[in-house]
Amino acid sequence: MPKDKMFYTDGATIKNIDLPQYPNSAWEWISNPPKDEEVELYARVAAVYRVATMSADAIARMPFAIMKGKQEVDPSDEYENVTGLIKNPRELFRLWRMSLFFTNTAYGFIDGTNRKNRAIRYIAPETMIPMVDKEIGLVGFKRKVNSESKEYPIFENPLDNQIFWMFRKDHTVEVLPTESTEFKALINAAGILYNSDIHIRAFFERGGIKPSLLKVSGVPSNEDREKIENIWTKVISGVYKMLGKVVNADTMEVQTIGDGVDNLKDSNLHREAIEDIALAAGMPLSLLLANSANYATANVEYTTWFNHSVIPWAEFMQDGINELLFEPMGYRLDFRPEITNMGTE
Q1: Which residues pair with 137 in a beta bridge?
Q2: Fewer beta carbons within 10 angstroms: which end of the chain, N or C?
């Protein structure tokens, strides 16, 4: 099936673009804007919320130091923002890590009118559109907020840039970030949990009544059928929580056509979905569920996750931050996982 195309004209020529070329935020929606699946699943599926939050908080809590050469000038435990660049590093690192979890991108906007007056703040990835030249590669970004957009070119000297970016790549891409994010690896499992919760909630909202058909013997008149349908609709939708109606038991029969929620408690599907989410995040299942056998086991499980997931992501972020932010200023950011409890172990 060919990709969806949108055609537009500037009055002189007709052009076309791929609809997926830009995110939903790049369009002006007249009505019925599409739901953001990432936000919906993150906000409503407990396992996704916990995985994303734990991953971001682990980076935010990691000790670090700002170095100038071999001299430590600004350690995290006594942070004074010597460079003037990052006012609240823990919050910024937390947001960047969460952005990478969902989109494989992280952006910052650098305020300041000159190279000595620079301060960076987080900006949402949905507002950014990379601009790529087929010969040169990445040449800049277009930032779109509400109905206004502005382009920010990439300069040869990083100190002249107003946009900071980190792209997580894989073997399928060369310039832009890969679409294979941590979130997409667990999205199917998250969807199972989300729709399961929706089903259970709706079941109890309609009074715990299973989906059913009402079989009526004979051929009732239109008036009688409308009355019966009206009452029955209110019953199965939960409007009549306490029903006190007199009916002819010989002419009406309720037939269940679906399951309620009784069988869900014994289903392995729910647990398998949570296991898939933990697997995608490289996190021990007991750590996600907070049900480790004992304190010692919990420490071992957290240390394993810390070494094989948290530290690699910290190193990735450290390299990107140094290349575009600190090294052009003559500084360097060093994360210090080795001085945490997990690093010591």
Answers
A1: 133
A2: N
Backbone angles phi, psi at 52, to 5 degrees: -65, -40
How far is the C-alpha of 82 from the C-alpha of 342, rounded, in Å? 28
Burial (0-12, 13-18, 19+ Cβ within 10 Å), 75: middle
- C-alpha span between 235 and 230 (Å, rounded): 9
**Given pLDDT bands bounded at 50, 70 and 90, which one contains residue 255?**
low
Q: For residue 198, what are its two tokens?
A: 């929706």
What is the per-residue pLDDT across 127-165, written as a single tens digit (0 to 9) for each? 999 999 989 999 999 999 888 899 999 999 999 999 999
CA 131 distance to own-chain centroid: 23
Distances (CA, A) of 133 to 51, 108, 176, 231: 36, 22, 12, 65
Predicted TM-score of the model (pTM): 0.74
pLDDT of 6 reads 52
Instruction: Determine what percent of the chain is predicted with pLDDT higher than 90.
Output: 42
Task: Return the residue matching tokens 């009055």.
Answer: 11
HEC assignment per residue over the chain: CCCCEEEEECCCCEEEEEHHHCCHHHCCCCCCCCCCHHHHHHHHCHHHHHHHHHHHHHHHCCCEEEEECCEEEEEHHHCCCCCCCCCCHHHHHHHHHHHHHHHCEEEEEEECCCCCCCEEEEECHHHEEEEEECCCEEEEEEEEECCEEEEEECCCCHHHCCEEEEECCCCCCCCCCCCCCHHHHHHHHHHHHHHHHHHHHHHHHCCCCCCEEEEECCCCCHHHHHHHHHHHHHHHCCCCCCCCCCCCCCCEEEEECCCCCHHHHHCCHHHHHHHHHHHHCCCCHHHHHCCCCCHHHHHHHHHHHHHHHHHHHHHHHHHHHHHHHHHHHCCEEEECHHHCHHHHC
